[in-house]
Structure formats: C-alpha cells, structure tokens
Amino acid sequence: MALLFTKVLEQAARKNNPRFGSEELRDFLRDKAMQVTSRAPSKFIGAKKAKANIVQEINPGQIICYFYDAKHKATLPYWDKFPMVIPIERYKDGFLGLNLHYLPPMFRARLMDKLYDLLNNQKYDNTTKMQLSYELLKGASKFKYFKPCIKRYLSSHIQSQMVQIDVKEWDYALFLPLARFQKANQRKVWDESINMINNT
Fold first, then answer.
1. 37-53 tens-digit pLDDT
2. Domain that holds residue 110
3. DSSP tally for the chain: helices H, then strands E
C-alpha cells in the first residue's frame, strides 16, 4: 500500500486552493481519510513514503507514529498499540507526549487549531515544529483538549521504527484511522476523553 499524502494535498490545493492548516483543507482531508475504513499500521510503517521519514531520535514538536507495548498493560484499562504522538519532553528512558488517537476527529481538529499557533516558523518544512511544553498546555484553558492525550512512553517498549510525519501532511494524517486500542473499543476511549475535557 502506498500512502498518497502528498498527492491528496496537491489535489486539495488544486481544487480549493486552501491555506495550509485552514478549515477547508482539514475538512477535505478528513473526508478523504474517513473514506478509508481500515488502515493497517504495519502497512503504514512499511510504506515507501513512511520509510523515507524514519527517525532515530525523538523530535519534540513533531508528530511520530510507532508500535508500542505498554509496560503496565496488565493493569491499564486500555492503551494504544500504535500511537500518533506529539513529543513534548524527552527523558533518559523515554518521553512525554500527546497521543492524538485519544481524541475523536473533531476534538483533534480543535486541539490542532490551537497548536498551530505555536509553530516556530511558517516555512512548513523540516525546520517547522510546535513549541510547546507541559506547563504551557496545562496553564492555558484554550489547550484543554490535550488532557486525555498526555502520556508517558518508554523507549524500551517501542517495538518498531519511528515514522515522523511531514509537516505538510499533518492535516491528513490527523484523521487516518490508525489507532489500535487494546482492552477497550475506540468509542469507549473517546467517550471517556470527552468526559474528562467537559469536567475540567
């Protein structure tokens, strides 16, 4: 399976000429992504496009995907085997990040609307990243959607290569159905995430 992120983005630009990060582009890409009823993460990792984006180190402010085996999976109510994460802080044994899969698509869009304000530049290339910290997120009410997403990941429990998603493809990748929740269905996870947001 070839991932055609760039092709779809070019198609969107030709059709609507939307601004990168705009609601029009996101709506277009969401519709495209939602036409896919199933995406195999293993094929995502193995795709030619993804192979070109394999990274060895965590880059805070980017978006990465990988297979993960939770250390405390026996006691966790549920966990995501294939996280899509924005790393925030690096540690010796891993990192803290936002797993976007814990939010339903519309809430992901609302969070990303706010996070786009934190881009370090407007080049939309490999130098572009989100400048965020845990303190910044928890200190501003406009970032309230992050709360269900904050997760701690251990490097020793990453079970595949890490794929970094191109900045210009964030809007599309955001809506791909790649989550692989264990011990609970996606609807239950999203319902609990929404309750957490509404109760803050």
1. 455 676 666 666 666 68
2. 5-198
3. 8, 8
